Amino acid sequence: MLKFMNRMPWATAHLAALILAGLALMPGCSRQPTSGREVWAEIEGRPIYRDKVERLYRSRVPSGSEAGSAAQALNLKLNILNELINNQILVDHASHARISVAETEVDTKLSQVQVAFTPDEFQKKLKEQGMELSDLRDEIRESLIIEKLINKEITSRATVTDAEISDFYQHNEATFNVPEAQVHLAQIQVTPTKDAQVRNLRNDDASNPAAAERKIQALYARLHNGDDFAKVAQEYSEDSRTSVGGGDMGFVPVSSLAANPQLKEAVSSLKVGQISGIIRSPTGFHIIKLLGTEAPGQRQLSDPTVQSAIRRNLSNEKEQLLRAAYIEDLRNRAKVVNHLAEKIVAAGGNPAGVP
Questions:
Q1: 119 burial class (0-12, 13-18, 19+ CB within 10 angstroms)?
Q2: Can you tell me the distance from the alpha carbon of 181 to that of 283, in angstroms, rounded to the nearest whole number?
Q3: How many other CB atoms are there within 10 angstroms of residue 98's CB atom?
Q4: pLDDT class for 213, splitting at 50, 70, 90?
Q5: Least C-beta-crowded within 10 Å: which of 92, 102, 213, 307?
Q6: ∠ at Cα 201 (198, 204), nearest 5°?
Q7: Looking at the whole model, is its pTM more than 0.70?
C-alpha cells in the first residue's frame, strides 16, 4: 500500500463533532463586547475574552479529566488563544481582500454539520458550546472566508514540479511496493433494526426486517435506473461510518474478503464501476460498488496514480509550510497584544501566579 495515500473515507460523526468544536475557534468578531469580561488578547484593539478560551479548553478536555499538570493546562489555553488570534488576523485580511461567501454556501456547510446528529443531539451540542444557531452560522461563514483566503493565497501557490516528483520517488521507491492485491469498494447498507447512530442526509432508517428489505429493493431499483451510487449512499445508507463519503470504504486487501464468502464472490464478479446484487449478511443488506483494483507489485514512476499521489503529498507539505509562514507574516504586521502571555512571563511560568 502507498503509505502516504489517503485511502480511507471520512468518519462522519467524528468529522461533524470536530467541525462544531473547531468552528468555535473562530473569533466571532461581529459580537459586541460585554463589560466585566476579562480580556486575554487584543488584535487591532478588538478583544478575545478569557471565557471563550476557557470554554474551548473544556471542549478539548474530556469531562471529569484534566489536561495534566496546572502548567500543561495553562499551556493548552495559551495555544488555544494563539489559534483565536491567528483566525482573527486571517478574517481581517480576507476582509481587506474583499473575500466573501454567499448564504447558500453557509447553508450547505451547515447541512453537512447537522447530518451527523439527530435534532436533539445537535441542539445539545450547540448548548454545550454555549452557542445559538445564528452564532454557528456566523462562525461557519467566517470559516469559509478563511478557507477561500487560504485557497487564494496558499493552495494556488503550492506548485510541485516534475523534477520534485521524480526525486521523491527515487528516495521512497520501497513505499510504492504493494504487498497484495486490493480492491477499492463503496457500499450502501440497510439494517433490519432501528439504530440511533444511523446518519444519512434523509435521516432514513428501516425499523424492521420487512421495511429493510423493501428499502434495499427500492434503492437497488434506483441504481439500475441510473441514480448516482454516491448520492444514494449519502441520502439513504445506514452505515454511519461511510454514508457521508458516498459509501466509500477505502482500499481493502483481497485476503480480508475471505471471512465473507458471499461478499468475496460478489466482488470477484464485478468490473470497475459495476455494482453488485443485493447481499444479505447478519447485519442486514448491502449493495457493493467496485471503484478500483490494485494488483500487487512495484509501482513505477510512470504510473499516473503514483505521480498523482506524490504530487498531492508534496503539495500538502508545501501548503502546511506556506500557511505557517503566511500567518506569521500577517501577524508581524498586525497589532497584537497577548495579555495571557504577559501574565505567564510575569509569574515566571508559575501557574499559581496567573490570576
A1: exposed
A2: 26
A3: 6
A4: very high
A5: 102
A6: 50
A7: no
Q: What is the pLDDT of residues 79-112, one digit of tens each?
A: 999 999 999 999 999 999 999 999 999 999 898 7
Nearest CA among 333, 337, 340, 342 for reference residue 92? 333
| pLDDT tens string 216-242 | 999 999 999 999 999 999 999 999 889
Cα 173 → chain centroid: 30
Residues 6+ apart with CB under 8 A from 17: 116, 125
- Pairwise CA distance, residues 27 & 197, whole Å: 32
Question: Tell me, what amino acid is at 179?
Answer: P
DSSP state of 35: T
Alpha carbons 268 and 183: distance in angstroms, whole number: 10
> What is residue 110's DSSP assignment?
H
Q: What is the DSSP letter of 161?
A: -
Cβ 348 vs Cβ 71: under 8 Å: no
